[in-house]
Amino acid sequence: MTQTYDLIELETVDSTSQYLKRCLSNQTIDRPLVCMAHEQTAGYGQQNRVWHSNHQSAIFSIAYPIDHALTLSGHASLKLASLLHQSLQSQLSIPLFLKWPNDLYDAHGKVAGILIEQALSPQSRCLVIGMGINRGPDTSELLSGGYQASALPDFSTHDLIADLMTGLQPLDFSLPWQPDQQAYWQSNDWFQKGESVLWLSNGDSQPATYLGINSLGQAELEVDQRLVPLSSGVNAIRKR
User: Fold this and answer.
1) Among residues 44, 61, 89, 176, which is most buried (max CB within 10 A)?
2) pTM (2 decimals)?
3) Which has more confidence, 148 or 214?
């Protein structure tokens, strides 16, 4: 099968996403460009939190061209998380779980995160999709930010990227979340419906009951007998 993307492989970089954004500032691409690094010195995640990785982690970002007029649905993060879940499960025999809005967990903790940004110029518009996946037996470098980190057994980063790029081609970021996509998430959800969780927002936390993900891609909680739908951003959910 003809490769439908270009790959840049680096030994070390500050951030694969920042590297791609610098590339896009002075060139236009007409097909996806992937930057993979063996070491990342200044990785970052949601809310500019530091993304810690070890020397065995799989670290890469994808610059994915989209039309200037495309209206992104609110499900882009969830669709990409599901795609990463499917691709990893095709290589690994251990069960993995989806944590709203775009993290992956194994039975012990967080193993992967996704950050979606946009790079805009008068000539082009790209999604810059950063992915960091913990891999290897040593998780001592990965514990931070209140998360219990875990790491996956060995897998091929190159094979994972190839599988992801194949899955990205038919993915339409403008379409609503389809019933089969919602059902896939629900069957692999890190949380159980009715589970007692912590809702974190703007530095505060309070107990809540998890009700699942609705058709809009929002996490629904019951808080003080009222329904609270969450959009990604300042909101997070953790196990109690």
Assistant:
1) 61
2) 0.91
3) 214
CB atoms within 10 A of CB 72: 13
The whole-number average pLDDT for the span 148-157 is: 92
On the question of a cis peptide bond just before residue 179, with omega within 30 degrees of 0, the verdict is: no
Task: For residue 82, give Cα distances in angstroms to 78, 120, 185, 216.
Answer: 6, 26, 7, 15
The backbone torsions φ and ψ at residue 56, rounded to the nearest 5 degrees and listed phi first, read: -100, -5
pLDDT tens for 50-97 read: 555 667 899 999 999 999 888 888 889 999 999 999 999 999 999 999
Give yes or no for a contact between 118 and 128, defined as CB atoms under 8 angstroms apart: yes
Report the C-alpha gap between 80 and 27 in whole angstroms.
25
All residues at 6 or more sequence positions from 109 whose CB lies less than 8 Å from its CB, including other chains: 139, 147, 148, 149, 150
